Amino acid sequence: MTVATGSRVSIRRAHLQDRPRAYEWLVQSDLTPQVYGPLFPEREVPTPEQFAARYVNSFFDGTRPYSGRMFVIDVGDEDVGCVAHGPIDLLNDVVELDIWLAGSEHAGRGVASQALAVLTEWLQASYGVNRFLARPSRRNVRALRALRRAGFREADVPAREVVAKLRLPPGECVDEVLLFRVLPVPSSNLQREDGRTYVFIDSEFTSLLEPELISIGAVATDATAFYAEMHGWSPDRTSEFVREVVLPLLDGDAVPMEMAAEAFAVWLDERAGRAPTTIISDSGFDRWAIAELLGSEDLPAGVEWKRVTVAYEQLDQATQALDLRRHHALDDARALRHVLLGPRVTPPPE
């Protein structure tokens, strides 16, 4: 499935049958000496088993999109390389990218730089992350050139400080360069379209560092709502804030994750069956919550997601004005709707 297209390249989701080719392109092409070999004695060529351990099945089947995903780069009808993203760190708002081409005949044509540009923009629109990181060696001149053409720039502070602050794993190259592409944060304005249903959503989870889904709430402009609390999360792994603020507000009617997922999918399908539907949230964590709940990188047919940034204080004020419970998923969804649309909603269709 093609997810993003530029003037020359397109990006499609990789499948498990693409993994052997992706490995061959990485370790057996005439570009391999630019990342492994005599110039890079600190880097060993990965075995097929090591490659599969790094790029596990979920990189190819999309069951855990926030943990990482592999894509194939197409030019015309030809597959010319791969680009992958690692775990999406929503707390630090950053995701690491890696890219390699099938051979030198595809290099120097702007393929890699355009693939990186269109993928970063798609990732922001799809998953709510705004900062993108690449960690090439200074010896890899071609990679540096492609990244800079795609809008990546070197960090202003020493690499070791960035690695520590973002809790990044150790780099593979002794002379790595940390290059970032930072996209503008989405607008706080919501431009409504006639005939479209908007679903405002919020979620609660165990912690920002290692989130596990606790609850999800949604209110729609057709005057319907959805709320579910889930079994399966561990109280021992909740943050102090969640223990003190979130957990006392739970209704206590938790259900298995599978049951909540089925009910939520049915509810969304009902909205989308009547009108095109857009889910609105103010955080990428809520998009993560949907993927975690449904176990899929795709939303139901006829449903799309949009992030609209809202100041924390605005939600506090809406909560007070409407006498809602702040940090209860359903009430926070109501507060978000109030901030973006005001108190009026469209009556349900007859």
Write the layout of secondary structure elements.
Layout: E1 2-5, E2 10-13, H1 19-27, H2 48-54, H3 58-61, E3 69-75, E4 78-85, E5 95-101, H4 111-127, E6 131-134, H5 141-149, E7 153-154, H6 159-166, E8 179-182, E9 197-205, E10 213-220, E11 225-229, H7 240-246, H8 257-274, E12 277-281, H9 284-294, E13 303-307, H10 312-322, H11 329-341
Parallel strand pairs: 5-6, 9-12, 12-13
Antiparallel strand pairs: 1-2, 2-3, 3-4, 4-5, 6-8, 7-8, 9-10, 10-11
Describe this structure in words.
It is a single chain. With 350 residues, the protein is α+β, with helices and mostly antiparallel strands. It has two domains: 2-182, Gcn5-related N-acetyltransferase (GNAT) (Aminopeptidase, 3-Layer(aba) Sandwich), CATH 3.40.630.30; 197-341, 2-Layer Sandwich (Nucleotidyltransferase, domain 5). The protein has helices spanning 19-27, 48-54, 58-61, 111-127, 141-149, 159-166, 240-246, 257-274, 284-294, 312-322, 329-341; strands spanning 2-5, 10-13, 69-75, 78-85, 95-101, 131-134, 153-154, 179-182, 197-205, 213-220, 225-229, 277-281, 303-307. Strands 1-2-3-4-5-6-8-7 form an eight-stranded mixed beta sheet. A five-stranded mixed beta sheet has the order 11-10-9-12-13. Helix 4 (111-127) crosses helix 5 and helix 10 (312-322) packs across helix 11.
